[in-house]
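A quick word before the example. In earlier lectures we treated sequence and structure as two separate objects. From today on, think of them as two lines of the same record. Here is IS66 family insertion sequence element accessory protein TnpB written that way.
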Amino acid sequence: MNLEEEMAALVEEFKTTGLTQKTFSAQKGIGYPKFNYWYRKLRDEQSRGATGFMPVRTQGSSLSAETVEVVYPNGVKLRVPGGDLSLLSNLIKLY
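And the structure line, produced from the sequence above:
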């Protein structure tokens, strides 16, 4: 069993205990920062899929005449011309 599988099993066990992360990680002999990191990492992967990509919704059939809105997970919204795919690509890579 690799580290990710081991931590995933611990996170699933944690969810059934009703304990705080600090208490659970102390009982398992794991540092709280390490457990919290894996908890958040696995939660985020599950919420957006294992690939790390977010779905893109488009309105209309052509990007060239449309404005594209990029919404980052932290809530920041950017509106850019859809025809400028290079700019759009660079904005996505920023996150």
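Notice the following. Strands lie at 67-71, 77-81. We will return to this example when we discuss secondary structure assignment.
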